[in-house]
Design goal:
- There is one protein chain.
- The longest helix has 14 residues.
- 9% of the residues lie in helices and 35% in strands.
- It has two domains: 61 residues, no CATH class; 93 residues, OB fold (Dihydrolipoamide Acetyltransferase, E2P) (Beta Barrel).
- It is built from one helix and twelve strands, in the order H-E-E-E-E-E-E-E-E-E-E-E-E.
- The strands form three sheets. Strands 4-5-12-10-7 form a five-stranded antiparallel sheet, with no helix packed on it. The chain has a four-stranded antiparallel sheet with strand order 9-8-6-11, with no helix packed on it. Strands 1-2-3 form a three-stranded antiparallel sheet, with no helix packed on it.
């Protein structure tokens, strides 16, 4: 068995979306290891006959945990950006503001939020992950449209903690 470039790229995409930390495949004529750890995915492949293998590194996925927040300094933020907190996506997936088409939105601009409040859902590989706030404050801006794909660490909400 040997893998072509397309199969390797598909494997990288699958691993990056699945949220696993490491995959290793070993056959008698080749070995491939893909590791992820919330940084770019690195691929190491050893082949007996050296071949140039262009491999695109896919972004890694965090395990579905609650949202990670850090102080923000976005350029186009309303008011003084220095006091706003950015709530970022903990994974790659599709952003949803409600649990379904007929359901109420989890959070709107102007809503008061507290730690544990569900703000949105990020769907990855048919798993719907509720993203909870880790901060208290008022939502100032929602940075992503409903049903839009999001990347790991992409800003989703701006929150005024005062």
């Amino acid at each position: 068995m040997s893998m072509d470039i397309k199969q390797i790229q598909d494997l990288i995409k699958f691993v990056s979306k699945s949220g696993v930390n490491e995959v290793a495949i070993e056959e008698k004529d080749f070995k491939i290891t893909i590791k992820t750890n919330q940084e770019p995915t690195y691929v190491t492949a050893t082949v007996p006959n050296p071949v140039a293998v262009p491999v695109q590194a896919a972004a890694a996925v965090a395990q579905p945990v609650s949202a990670v927040s850090t102080p923000a300094t976005p350029a186009a933020a309303p008011q003084e950006a220095s006091n706003l907190i950015t709530i970022k996506s903990p994974m790659i997936g599709t952003f949803y503001r409600a649990a379904g088409p007929e359901k109420p939105l989890f959070a709107n601009v102007g809503d008061e939020i507290a730690p544990g409040k569900v703000l949105c859902i990020v769907e990855a590989m048919k798993l719907f992950n509720e993203i909870e706030s880790e901060v208290s404050g008022k939502i100032v801006k929602i940075l992503v449209n409903d049903a839009q794909p999001v990347e790991f660490d992409q800003p989703l909400f701006l929150v005024d903690p005062s």
